[in-house]
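Re-run requested by the PI after the first attempt was lost when the workstation crashed. Everything re-entered from the original request form. Ligand of interest: NAP.
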Amino acid sequence: MLRSVFRCLRINPVAGQRSMSQSSLAGKVAIVTASTDGIGLATAQALGKKGAQVVVSSRRQANVDKAVALLQSQSIQVIGTICNIDKKEDREKLVQTTLDQYGGIDILVSNAAVNPFFGNLLDTTEEVWDKIMSVNVKAAYLMTKLVVPHMTQRGGGSVVIVSSIAGYQPIQGLGAYSVSKTALLGLTRALAPELAHDNIRVNCVAPGVIKTRFSSSLWQNEDMMDGFKQLLSIKRIGEPEEIGGVVAFLCSDEASYITGETITATGGINCRL
Ligand code: NAP
């Protein structure tokens, strides 16, 4: 009886079962950078809930400990270590710790970014430019370069880079940061064809305004939010979990034919370059 219903509806029950397991990340090892708060933490949570073993990190041990405890309380397999993404020795330690504890790497989510200056683009100092480009762009590339040999050893993997809506439409006052986020759209597209040979997919997520500490000066300012809401189809700012879920999808086999893409998750703000 059930079979004939499936036949009428042209549903293959076996294919249905397969698609459920395609979203699973059981047995996968995932590094998420800058993952003790906000979007990074929500991403670690989303990956962990799909069964991945996750590695969280950030600059402060207290934050790492807190994030590990929170994820463990949700039965997520997790370890944590300090990693200031701007430091070569920290990046190497993050990779080595992952290999020592979990024996391989399948997923990298490059999420770290800074914005040390708010103001006119032409008032941005060389020092600020260097910092923004080093953390937001160069470290994303260098982390990818570090993990690729280990993904290759496992027969493939997935890299997801966190950009921003600012990468499409520069935000006033955040000029250099916006340019760095546009660079990540390019980095994604440049890496994807090269790494496809090793069965590694490279994708990007560009969030709109998401309720985190990083964006608090925006969402705590009612006047700014009123103006901003005009641009939104969904008239609220996003939650970190709404980005974590998109990243987890891109890391899963459900996205097995997607590479070099950026998914914008902005509540409907029009994005184009
Ligand atoms: P957040 O909530 O403020 O969290 C930032 C995280 O990064 C913390 O865990 C922090 O921990 C860590 N961190 C900061 N500097 C670091 C460094 N140099 N190395 C390693 N870890 C570092 O920020 P968020 O809003 O989730 O932002 C995450 C990403 O989303 C960024 O790439 C940002 O550009 C992007 N994004 C955010 C929004 C938004 O509206 N929130 C929109 C678009 C894009 P420690 O202090 O312990 O280091």
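Saved to the shared folder this time. The mean pLDDT is 93.
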